[in-house]
Design a protein that fits this description.
The structure is a homotetramer of 328-residue chains. Chain A has 2 domains: 183 residues, Rossmann fold, CATH 3.40.50.450; 117 residues, Phosphofructokinase domain (Rossmann fold), CATH 3.40.50. Helices cover 42% and strands 18% of the residues of chain A. Chain A is built from 11 helices and 11 strands. In chain A, helix 1 runs parallel beside helix 9, helix 5 crosses helix 6 and helix 6 packs parallel to helix 11. The longest helix of chain A has 22 residues. In chain A, 62% of the residues are buried. The interface between C and D is large, with 38 and 37 residues. Chains A, B, C, D: Catalyzes the phosphorylation of D-fructose 6-phosphate to fructose 1,6-bisphosphate by ATP, the first committing step of glycolysis.
Chain lengths: 328, 328, 328, 328
Amino acid sequence: MKESAVKKIAVLTSGGDSPGMNAALRAVVRTANYYNIECYGVREGYNGLINNDFLKMGARSVKNIINQGGTILKSARSAEFRTKEGRQKAYDNCIKLGIDGLVCIGGDGTFTGAKIFNEEFGIRVIGIPGTIDNDIFGTDNTIGYDTALNTAMDAIDKIRDTATSHNRVFFVEVMGRDAGFIALNSGLATGALDILIPEKKDSIDELFAKFRDAEKTGKASSIVVVAEGEKLANVYELAEKTKLTFPDYDIRVAILGHMQRGGSPSCADRVLASRLGYGAVTGLMEGQTNVMAGMRSNDLTYTPIEEAIKKHNEINEDLLLISKILAI
Amino acid sequence: MKESAVKKIAVLTSGGDSPGMNAALRAVVRTANYYNIECYGVREGYNGLINNDFLKMGARSVKNIINQGGTILKSARSAEFRTKEGRQKAYDNCIKLGIDGLVCIGGDGTFTGAKIFNEEFGIRVIGIPGTIDNDIFGTDNTIGYDTALNTAMDAIDKIRDTATSHNRVFFVEVMGRDAGFIALNSGLATGALDILIPEKKDSIDELFAKFRDAEKTGKASSIVVVAEGEKLANVYELAEKTKLTFPDYDIRVAILGHMQRGGSPSCADRVLASRLGYGAVTGLMEGQTNVMAGMRSNDLTYTPIEEAIKKHNEINEDLLLISKILAI
Amino acid sequence: MKESAVKKIAVLTSGGDSPGMNAALRAVVRTANYYNIECYGVREGYNGLINNDFLKMGARSVKNIINQGGTILKSARSAEFRTKEGRQKAYDNCIKLGIDGLVCIGGDGTFTGAKIFNEEFGIRVIGIPGTIDNDIFGTDNTIGYDTALNTAMDAIDKIRDTATSHNRVFFVEVMGRDAGFIALNSGLATGALDILIPEKKDSIDELFAKFRDAEKTGKASSIVVVAEGEKLANVYELAEKTKLTFPDYDIRVAILGHMQRGGSPSCADRVLASRLGYGAVTGLMEGQTNVMAGMRSNDLTYTPIEEAIKKHNEINEDLLLISKILAI
Amino acid sequence: MKESAVKKIAVLTSGGDSPGMNAALRAVVRTANYYNIECYGVREGYNGLINNDFLKMGARSVKNIINQGGTILKSARSAEFRTKEGRQKAYDNCIKLGIDGLVCIGGDGTFTGAKIFNEEFGIRVIGIPGTIDNDIFGTDNTIGYDTALNTAMDAIDKIRDTATSHNRVFFVEVMGRDAGFIALNSGLATGALDILIPEKKDSIDELFAKFRDAEKTGKASSIVVVAEGEKLANVYELAEKTKLTFPDYDIRVAILGHMQRGGSPSCADRVLASRLGYGAVTGLMEGQTNVMAGMRSNDLTYTPIEEAIKKHNEINEDLLLISKILAI
């Protein structure tokens, strides 16, 4: 093997946390250790770079975390890193410590920071997509997405029990400020009557038409899954409007909220995180920079960070049709 | 065995549904079947009595439901059953069918209906405590309570992951309009910093004192579990007030909501439901009436319905102290 | 849309059951219903074709099954269908009923039967890959594989708790007679010290070398995940041999067994099953035959059944290296 | 409050581990801390006393463990502690450190050791029942039992899926060498056709009679739950004998094994562990010794260790009858 392009790397988690970040961190640390690259953990995202909050990490530093939700490095959004002064401080600290490569685990915002940092100071950076929203281009799935889907689905399955027992209509809000992946997939998986997501133009009349169709087929209870970022209306407004038109309906609202970010990662997420953690370190070693490690159809790929941020995984139109057909 | 006091019984589920109602129903139907008592299911609670919505049930009618949340008989609150006319209709339907015993699975409201019905018309009734709230006297646990505790706990464990990763304060509302059992036990089980329940007088100053103590011990994230029926303030108000006093805190709110009512029942709930379903039918056969079947320290007991409604399981004061000591 | 190539289809599940078969069945039935194709369920796999055990299915026949493990049509291996006479009977029954398309949900054996049936009698067949083993070419994942991974992982996580508490070595057998996918992925996800699978040549010396390395790094407990079809030795033999060489080790064996086939399907499996059920019916309508519906990198694909049987998804060599690096 | 009878205590976990041991440990440490009692953790059970392996513990030493299976102190069976010399060493180490009270978390064997140690050397001891077997007198439930029930039940639910899909008979072995609590309750909760436990005299003819009855009622698949300690035969022998008499049956065996000891504790187990950990420390403070802290019908009780070991919770005869009636 030719010489590694990096000798001493740092790793951080930033932005909203997602299940599997710890598994990714473990993979980064142990891969570095295996290839004799020194490795430092950075606490609380980019703030840790600025505040010189580095932590030397060896193979045992990451034991027993592969199955833990959250991130032991903690995460934060950093206002200071958005300023040139902040980034200068961060760079100075890296230089002082001899850091020549940086692994950034997070989403859009995290990657934007990494890209600017690389372009300003030339330090090698590589991204690992860790977010439950799955809205990152360059990887089939982001780390945490699969776990969040199962969490949302389990919760909706439970709501279904009580909805059916009482002939109720439930509006369930799931996470996804800009992306409907969680809503679409968890809705399909739970037989939701309708699924409202920001990527498509929804109308209240179509929703009401579905309620009327459901009545005709004898469906006595219904669940409508709504992405956080839905533009038509939020779950409370939807419930109100529905009540006005269907005064006999017994309507409830549920907001699944932050529990979707936690929990022990699924097998798929642990495997994905392990592969991407490994891929990030070996990528840096091979000279990659300003790219994101991703997995497409079971193959490790590197996508320029710029592309990962700008492009988006498209919602599959088929899924919308299928969910409509199957929720009959 | 002497002759059974009943020959043909009906069973209904009423009020808010709870996990294990199906397991109780299964036990009622199969116990009746075993002792050659005819058994009818009544749909949608007391409404089914009024609307003559009976369903003959045999051993196979209840197969594959022991592990299902909700209630296949469906549940409802019945305004009409609160009127004398409604109850008269219900009684007439029972007489027409030859029903001489009624098993009512539900909570306070269900039992009140059963009691009045028995006192007015003399028909034998027996209650089975099915509610997640555990606020029924005469049984250590109500059916569904244990499952709801685990559901709430699992959700709070997940919230804990993200709270810790971001150094956040979470106010989590759990079910319990009149009773703090779910809040107290799920809060204790998740190491909540504070637990606010309707049974004790809470003050915002005490809560704030706990935040200050937590800061001193270096606790960076906290969860406060709040019962739905808490009198001091709801979770949104608590979050706002806290923000005013602790402007640096990153505060979030989570309302666990109706998912707490659903899900496959826990082993304890399935066993409890099976024993009470059996106990209700054998109780009716032995001539019991106007009582509730319950389980106290592993023994089947019958408590007058009046007592079950009027008295309440007291919150254990020790638990409050213990939760305070352990959440250090 | 041009005219459908099929008017009346039948659907069956065959071979070992897997979580998500019901979700696939639901998708087949409802998609057929949506496009006005008559649909029949066949009971107990190919036996049902031979025994004329057809069941007319409409949209409501498949309600409340998307979240259920197993298969409501039941599954079986059919010796009679392996004979020409058996297949003739099956074909005669199809013709009598007017079946012009057959959806076969299962694995290798199921597809072989479908292929021969198609080639002998010309009846259109399409396969849906339903098996936990993931050993089918033409789809990234088979239906049930993701759920089985999570089930195996959860069990191994639990075993890890007790292994760590007692400094024990556990040999854990997971399913996979010919394929190591479950072993490799669940082993990677649980930090197994070693993973033994039929696709690679294992030696007892390498295993023992890993035990010695683990001792050096201070690892006091270890888990070795072994695929059912491992050629070196089975878990009991491995435990014995290890005991001879490491007499101080406290060694235990666990065989996860059939629980890996059951359980409510994961979100990924429900979505996959829904898409493939839809794809199978629309495929038949468009004139596809003797192919299998699969999903590759989020796209619906049709692979000739012959290819699906003959080729195999290869174990990713990277994964073996990664699991070795990360289990340090 | 009068002066505490102890000033410096030690706590250990011994014997087979059970979910909730960590929660009990947390409660012991934090209660001691709250009342200004110094507290030491002892590693690997009684071995730690002998090997002088003490660990000073404060409130933060036990953070984030309430939800973890296993025991961070590790557990072991100690041959040396069964000798007078071993116990003398243990006592000398306690004296050197100034330990005047010992909390022993475990089962029968653990308590026997504690009792002898107390009787020989006078050091105050108190037991906390931590075992999944529930075979300890003086408490309604032991710590870990409820979690183990849910683990066994979930596994059997999954096995049920595949049993039903293939019309199979499964013999499922659950833990319980001397006690049938897990078998009886998990079997009742999963509708097992028969439940074989060491506490009752089983006969193969009765079992076969149940198979014949099941056939008559049209039951196509069956699960028989067998306790590890069943005297009639083990699961493999039962399967063989059944095959001889019912050659058409498709029979499988499953041994749930050590996964029953692990996993995150249920809410009931965390609450029980918290209360008993608190009760053990306050008991020692109040002068209790040679007793076990237990919970009966929601009340904290202290039972002489001798009684806890000698007496046994009886299997409830009703449960056997109920399981028979309900598995129709």
